[in-house]
């Protein structure tokens, strides 16, 4: 694990093998320090102009020196004074001031567009750019992932709200009336699954702002579950399979009230292979794979990151959870995005 890494989930012990400049961050810092700073196109052109003026002045001074000495028979002292005066007068002293004024006008124009310029040459550099590479997270976006849609076997629901604050209605796509969460209903089981099969936490700071700890995807699911008041139910975690990119799902074994259940969340394509059934308001049904794949593709085209949630009854007295337990009897509940 690299120095400076933030652990969002899981636990473990490690041995420090390098510190300071010997770490990967230290190597990166050394490489950054050795980067040659390139001059802006404007400064390069000004350097070329300055050299050209300098050469031109030298040529003019040499030509005038020869001409005045041979054809005008001027004293050398008077000739040198005239040549020095000519050289000084040829220097464009007002050029830097003119360039600064022009760049300042560019800064004002950028400020009217709500862009702050700290260094004058930046205005000219922006004009020479053809491609801008920018960090998206927290720059072009708010770095806050929120659930906007929920797909179930019966319907599609829209979720309101754009931040981590657990406020916003959940309603069917064709009905603005907020959903009613009844004990034992499909939506109650779905929300409880994404709430409990989750390593993130939703925290309200003293300032009143809401934030999450853990992964952004799990945090978005936690916020969705918090937008609805679920019926009270005692829960006890018995076992857990942490999420891993190799198998792309997370599973927990819980005792909920008087029943033992296995809860699963993960990538839709993986859970589709694990599930044999789907839960609807009318009961269990065989998994309708074309329906789910069509809906997932439809909402993925909107730019939504799709996640699936499922569950299955656990064996009586089961206390350990293995991957083999998920090979049969898994029931698909829904897919948020």
UniProtKB/TrEMBL annotation:
GO cellular component: membrane
Keyword Aminoacyl-tRNA synthetase set for record: no
Gene3D superfamilies noted in UniProt: Calcium-transporting ATPase, cytoplasmic domain N, Calcium-transporting ATPase, transmembrane domain
Membrane-crossing segments per the record: 52-71, 83-111
Compartment(s) of residence: Membrane
MF annotations from Gene Ontology: ATP binding; ATP hydrolysis activity; transmembrane transporter activity
Keywords: ATP-binding, Membrane, Nucleotide-binding, Translocase, Transmembrane, Transmembrane helix
Highest taxon above the source species: Bacteria
Membrane topology reported for the UniProt record: Multi-pass membrane protein
Keyword Secreted: no
Protein name as annotated: Cation-transporting P-type ATPase
Organism from which the protein derives: Klebsiella pneumoniae
